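In this section we turn from sequence analysis to structure. A common task in structural bioinformatics is to predict how a protein folds when a small molecule is present, because the ligand can shape the pocket around it. The inputs are simple: the amino acid sequence and a SMILES string for the ligand, here adenosine-5'-triphosphate. Study the lines below before reading on.
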Amino acid sequence: MTSSPSTELHLANVTKKFAAFTAVDDLTLTVPQGSFFALLGPSGCGKTTTLRMVAGLEEPTSGKVLLGGVDIAHKRPYQRPVNTVFQSYALFPHLNIFDNVAFGLRRRGVKSRDIRTQVGEMLDLVQLAGLGARRPAQLSGGQQQRVALARALINRPQVLLLDEPLGALDLKLRRQMQIELKRIQTEVGITFLHVTHDQEEAMWMADTVAVMNAGRIEQLGAPADMYEFPATAYVANFLGQSNLLSATVTGRAGDDLTLDVGGTRFAAPASRARSAQGNVFLGVRPEKVQLAPAGTALPDGHVGIDSVVTDTCYAGVSTEYLLRTPWGQQLSAFSANAQAGGPLAPNTPVVAFWHPSHSFVLHRAPGNQPTDGYELPDNLPAGTR
Ligand SMILES: Nc1ncnc2c1ncn2[C@@H]1O[C@H](COP(=O)(O)OP(=O)(O)OP(=O)(O)O)[C@@H](O)[C@H]1O
C-alpha cells in the first residue's frame, strides 16, 4: 500500500489567533510525502492547533494549508484526505472491533466482500487478527490504540495525523507502540504527522522533528543533527539535557574558536558554532562529559574544568553527577554504571573534561545566564530542563 504521488503537505505562513492570543504565528513548514514528521514542544506551544488546522478542526486566521498543491485550509474535515488518531482512541463502544475498523469503508459504500478483505488486512497489519468480534472495552489500552490506528488507516488517507496517540499508555507499552507505529508507517508509506511533547518519542520515531516554541518553529531537522548541533539554547534544553556555559569569544584561528569560560581559555570548533563572536554559550551534552580525579592530566586535545561533585542521581543504567565549577555554575555529567568503581561521593574534587568536537557554541542574548537566571519556559514537561 503506498500513497499517491505529490501528496506533500505544505503550511504557508499559517497564523491562528484565538481572540487577541496568537497560538500559531506565521508558521511555514513542509512535510515530505511518506515521511514520519514530529511536531515537538512543551504544552501550549501550538502543536495541536497546527495539527487541527490540517485536520480541518480549526480554520487558520491567515495562510494556506496545501496538500499536493491544493489549498485545503477552508475545506470541511470530511472533504480532506486526512485522518486523525487521538490520545483518547475515540472508538465506538457499541461496535465490535471489526465494525469499528469497517466504519469508513461502509460509509463509502464499499462491497461487503471487499470490506472483509480490507479489514482483515488491516487487523493483520496492527497485529489484532482474531480479535474482530470483541468490543473496545474488552481490549487493553495498547490494543484499543491499534484499533484506532487501523480505523484511521483503512481509508488510505494521504496524511495520518497523530495527536499524542501514546499519551495514555504506560512507559513500557509506549515503547512497544513506538516501534510498532514506526513499522506500520514504513509498511504503509503514508505521511505521518505526529504531535508530542515527549522528546525521546519524537527522536525515536520521526525522520524529521520540528521543535516549536510559542507558535513558531525554533528548529527543524533530522533528530540526530538537532541533538548533536542544536541551533538555540531553547532547543539544546528541550531536546535532551545540555550544559550551557556562559562564555565570550576571544579569538579565532582557522577552524578553532578560543573562548573565555569563567577566566579559563577553552577551544571549540568554529564549524560547530552558531555564533562566533561576543557573548555565547559553550554547550556540551552531559553524556559527553567525562570525570577523572582532580589533578589528572587530560587526554590529548581535551578541555576540562576543575569541579566538585555536589550530588549524585542513580538511574539504573547510568548515574548523573551534578558538579559545581569554581565560578559557581552547575554542570551535569552522565556516567554509565557499567564502568568500574563506585559512585563518586559529594564533595569529591574532579576534573570534568570532553573533546572540543563534542561541544557546540550558541548565541547568548545579553544578560542570559544559565545558572543565575537563564530563562527556560515554565511549562517544560517533567524530566526536561
Ligand atoms: N479554542 C481555543 N480558544 C482559546 N485558546 C486556545 C484554544 N485552543 C488552544 N488555545 C490556546 O492556544 C495555545 C496553543 O494550544 P495548543 O493546544 O495548540 O498547544 P499544544 O502545544 O498542543 O499543547 P498541549 O501539548 O498541552 O496540547 C494554548 O495557549 C492554548 O491555551
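Residues 171-188 form the longest helix (18 residues). As an exercise, try to locate the residues that line the adenosine-5'-triphosphate site and compare them with your own expectations.
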